[in-house]
Amino acid sequence: MSDPILRLQGIARDFHDGVELRRVIQKTDLDIYPGEFTIIAGPSGSGKTTLMTLMGLILRPSEGTVYIRDIKATGCSETKMATLRQKNYGFVFQLSELLPALSVMENIVVASGIQGSSVAGDIKKKALDLLKDFNLLDCLHLRPLQLSGGQKQRVAIVRALVNDPAVLLCDEPTSALDAESSQIVLDALKQLSKDKTRGLIMVTHDPRVFPYADRMIKIEDGIIVYDSLISKEQKAL
Amino acid sequence: MRSLVALKILLHDRTTTAGSVIGVIAIVFLVGQQLSVLFGLFNYMSVLVDHSSADVWICTKNTSTVNSAGLLPVSYLDRISALPFVSWAEPILFGSGSFKTKNGKNEGVQVVGVKNLRQAIAPWKYSQGSAASLFEYDSVTIDRLDIKKYGNPKINDIYEINDIGVRIAAITEGVKGFAGRLVFTNIVKAREILNTPPGRCRALLVKLKDPQLIEQGIAAIKKVLPSVQVISASELSSNTRAYYIINTGMGGSFGFSTLVGGLVGVIIITLTMYTAVLQREKDFAVLRALGARKLDIFVIVMVQSMIIGAIGIFIGFFLLALFLHTTYGSPLPSYMPRWASPILAFSTFLLCVFGSSIAMLKAIRIEPASVFR
Predict the structure, then answer these.
(1) How many CB pairs under 8 A join A and B?
(2) Within this chain, do residues B267 and B164 fall inside the same structural domain, yes or no?
(3) pLDDT band at B194, cuts 50/70/90?
(4) Is residue B243 part of a domain?
(5) Which of A7, A14, A46, A53 lies closest to A29 in space, CA to CA?
(6) A145 close contact with B: CB closer than 8 A
(7) Are B141 and B96 found together in one domain?
(8) Least confident range of A36-50, A213-227, B154-168, B243-257
(9) Which pLDDT band, with edges at 50, 70 and 90, does A210 fall under?
(10) Same domain for B168 and B314?
(11) What residue of A is the nearest CA neighbor of B2?
């Protein structure tokens, strides 16, 4: 097995709910490997999204350390964390969250230039290649409002991929889509998960998605209660 | 990319962008219009001093404004004309008069008597006639803007000022004073109209051979004429303006209006920019999640503020120019000195950035975690 691309060592997260300090993620160790399609499932309020935001360096853990590509991210400044997110992560949100003011192409390359640099030519070329792969080349100059839900989510996936991230984090990306669009998006994500340089993590409570996973993590009340690889036989069942 | 994002968001949120631009226009136009009227009144206040070709004015002691000068002996001229650094010296006479109109009404005027041939202080722009008209004994000028008030007189029509017959010899263009409508005549006729004792004048105007040596010139004249006030034209002009600003409450009134104009603009900008950031809260959170630093969000909102400022200042100055053009030659005094426009533009720009500061603070505090549901 290759080295983990993302490592969580003893991480925990507390929130103050206005009355008392509540631990929403109990002390956890977790390694994510490249080429794996990991699903984090659990009921609402179980802490799966919090766990994902800790993995994605969006939130800082109250305890423990996060390593991305062997870089210790915990303790970094906010600016450094932002740069680590830009260089190492791709995010696909529940609703595509494309910027309505920007065109499809601008939405895709925005992350590359958001820290002030101009967007490199190879990023633009990669964006075009990905748009072609996702059958979105006709939408290049359209605005998000002119796209269907499925198209928007595919554009969001392209946006997440364009910087060649080490980890692709997907937060219930099919929950707002119809069955047909969900199928297209899931097939695309499954295909991407085969890339041996990238780990793919999806948070969901949709059981239709489970068969796509290589690894299933279940979380309840902030505790990982199940973490197992899924064999081909189990998937077939 | 940040500037492009800033511009695209502005273009997308047209209503809020328009609101902010209106805020900037309000600052430029309201403040600019108030200032231009104030500057216009400034010009009226010291019009006689500013349009004299003299370097030094000699008036009675403790003269606070040019209009409050007492009477001086014209004979003082003999003492200063002989001084080696004096190029020329001339008397001037002015005072209040009552212009009887055709329908029997009396209109207050300020009669200014100038000495031929030099006419050290004389109308600077004519609509009809010329400076030569003032050579004739009974001739006076009136201003085009006051013609209606006087009952539409024509050239060579006979009227009365202080019950003395005068003939309209020329019509001036935009020659107005703060203390009353200006009527120019020769000093002999002015003495008759104003019933001034012989050998008396209101001030003596002195032109120096070398205007650079004004301090030395004033000191030398003071030695010759110790009982009068000897003052440079520029100092008398600013004293006169300061006197009116302080003593008429005009400074406070215009200052308050200017402040209100600026405040209204800042409030509009603050509210619209803040609303715009609230509306785009999710977009900023997405950008933060994708790798934008707080600095990048700050830059986006700052660029938006600068674009809004630039557009607003451009439109505001266009409207202000339209206002100045429309009021030029009208009874409403409006004048914007060249140096004032860049200061107004820069101040507006600063106010625009200040108005956007609350929106900026809000924008940089948006947490990327808020994009996750």
Answers:
(1) 96
(2) no
(3) very high
(4) no
(5) A7
(6) no
(7) yes
(8) B243-257
(9) confident
(10) no
(11) A114
Q: Are residues B11 and B74 in the same domain?
A: no
User: Which tokens sit at B176?
Assistant: 């107005």
The percentage of chain A sitting over the pLDDT mark of 70, rounded to a whole number, equals 97
Q: Does A131 touch chain B (CB under 8 A)?
A: no
Domain that holds residue B128: 62-226
Is A165 an 8 Å CB contact of chain B? no
The verdict on residue B53 lying in a domain is: no
What pLDDT, on a 0 to 100 scale, did the predictor assign at position A236? 56
B138 reaches A (C-beta below 8 A):
no
Residues of A in contact with B286 (CB under 8 A): 93, 97, 99
Closest chain B C-alpha to A117 CA, distance in angstroms:
7
> Which residues on chain B are in Cβ contact (under 8 Å) with A82?
288, 291-293, 296
Chain B partners within 8 Å of A201 (Cβ): none
List the single residue in B with minimal CA-CA distance to A160: B290
Domain locations along chain A: 6-236
State whether B313 and B256 are in the same domain. Answer: yes
Confirm whether B234 is domain-assigned: no
Quote the CA–CA distance of B141 and B2 in Å, as a whole number. 64
In this structure, are B68 and B199 located in the same domain? yes
Structure ipTM: 0.86
B239 domain residue, yes or no: no
Q: pTM to 2 decimals?
A: 0.74
Looking at the fold, whether B161 and B132 belong to one and the same domain comes out as yes
Centroid of chain to Cα A129: 21
Which amino acid belongs to residue B311? I
Arithmetic mean of pLDDT, B153-169: 90
CATH number for domain A6-236, candidates 1.40.20.10, 3.40.5.10, 3.40.50.300, 2.102.10.10? 3.40.50.300
Does the beta-carbon distance from A79 to B296 stay under 8 Å? no
Q: How many domains does chain B have?
A: 2
B365 Cβ under 8 Å from any chain A Cβ: no
